[in-house]
Amino acid sequence: MATIQDALAAAVRHHQSGQLAAAARIYRRILEITPDQPDALHLLGLVARRAGQWGAAFRLIAHALRIDPAMAEARLNLGNLLRDQGHAARAETAYRSAIALRPDFTAAYENVGGLLRGLSRLADACDAYRRAVRLAPVGAEGHAGLGNVLQERDALPDAVAAYRRAIAIDPTHMGACNNLGIALRALDKTGTGAAAAAAWHRRAVALDPYFAAGYSSLGLALQEQGRLEDAAHTHACAVAVDPGFAGGYANHGNARLNQNRLDEAVTGFRRAVVIDPAGPDARRNLGMALLVGGRFEEGWREYEWRLRCKDAPTRADMPKPRWKGEPLDGRRILLHGEQGLGDSLQFCRYVPLVAARGGRVILGLPAPLQRVMAGLPGLERVVSGQLAADDFDLHLPMLSLGEVFGTQMDTIPHRVPYLRAEPELVARWGERLAELAKDGGGLKVGIVWAGSPTHGNDKNRSIGLAPFARLAAIPGVRLVSIQKGPTEGQAANPPGGFPLLNLSPDIKDFADTAAIMASLDLVICVDTSVAHLAGALGVPVWVLVPFAPDWRWLLDRDDSPWYPTMRLFRQSRPQSWDDAIDRLERALRDRAASSPHVKAGPSDMPILAPVSWGELLDKITILDIKTERIADADKLANVRREREALVAVAAQADTARPEVAVLIDDLRAVNTTLWEVEDEIRDCERAKDFGPRFVELARQVYHTNDRRAALKRDLNRLLGSDLVEEKSYQAY
To answer: DSSP class of residue 520?
Structure first.
């Protein structure tokens, strides 16, 4: 007759071969005979866990441990059950009790390491995995788990070594193969690293053709190599093998976003959100896709999820309430920077609007921005570093201002300048720039060729100094380096020795850069903080923009609704700047040829006539309307050139004052009405319809013009214009 141990051995054989129902029948039979047989209770609990019967599994394993508290394996499996149910603290206790019973229990160390990694207790997790690999140096799981923790701690070379040891022990360990690829890609952002990574990802999916995460990792490696269509196809494979894989849909959306295929990108992100509504990365990326497409209302809302992402650059959980746009009634509000310096330069335009709602505005910004921000209208002070909780009442991350104010394309606060250079600094830097006059003068053009190398998209936006040699060769152009950062040293020895006035070493912060810009005719730069500074100052600025742009540059336009004096030169295809620089060079040649700095004869001199401030601002508002309503490319280029020149003059007036800003907005609205009335009058002319509607429109012209004249007169008064336009009409 078979013994209990014989029956138990038979059940275990069924269990190990996957015949769980047969194993369960024998376990139950044993328990009918011996209700307190601890091994049968423990193993039947594991069968219940595999069937998703969590309550039954817990009761069975707990019962086994009451009978035999020294069962280390049962404590390990109890820990696994508690971990899977989200009871991390109790799971850790179970694992550590298993280790106490068996100090050489490698699996318990591996499991506690995995649990602690999930809790972001990376140092403790690392210790647990190191103990596991010391106990079992030929155990692949320990080395693979240690690699995962090291990778999260950014110890990438050590992570790579750990993965390689795991693969050497078990060449079929697909997780280690895939994660080795991820580590290699993070370690080397050049194409070489991505190519090596792709080989390991391919090996992982070859080991398991249904490994969805492996396909998605391969897609990311292909994206870094610029193989966007191949990447999109591979991400599609990931969701084909696992239709519930939210990350696969999100990564497919990213690949399509990098191709400027917005509809497909948005579809991918939305599918990811349906599967995982609380996943912040897909929702943040959905927000960016909507914003780059100009769909601001939903875009701002989804972009708020950036604050919940693992790589969030700012804390959303401040010790004071978040401002939601309500009247502030004298309360102190901290607007804090959260991403790059350019973001702060772009969104500080909202400070006067926040102040207008009764707020005492404090800006929390890095030190390089403090001086240049100090003169913002409505700003109480700028702070750098930690601010005591008692020093403010409310807070808001700066990039949330667009959502709070409900900003749409046509309501962007786009009046410039909203920042100003310090007059003393302007005079000081002007003396340095006077050196260019000794060489015959010319168009003074400041250049910036690189952003921060730590920026996630820097390889696509920075171009190096060499391409600017073409611009230095244009007659009448004098280049000035205002580059800062690791590459500024290139200005001391430009490629080919082209002429370049190097101001970079003496620039201390953005206040210096702003003062230099005040004496420049033009700034040409890549997509970095200098572009935002020039735009905020109302300085003419040309920006080289990657094929797949940052969301704020939108798509398919060469201007920016955020910065009226900005012109964009976009890549026509990914990873190639040739066409954009060709267009920029032609534009600069035209600009230099028409510049007053290089005119040869009196007949070529530009017409410079003094006008009142009201007349100048009136003209600018008309040009604003033309930029929105003229479609012909050649005409639009002329409009923008004229507007750029006039805005540079208008920068001398304090147009940011609230009472002045309101009048300018009213003047723009009046001129829009006149434009529309005149269009309708022409419709009547074409139809030969001179009836009551024609008469009504004709009367509206002179009524609206009277309103226009009154607004210009009020602007002249507020801005202290020496010249005043006078009108004299008969009464009506």
So the answer is: -
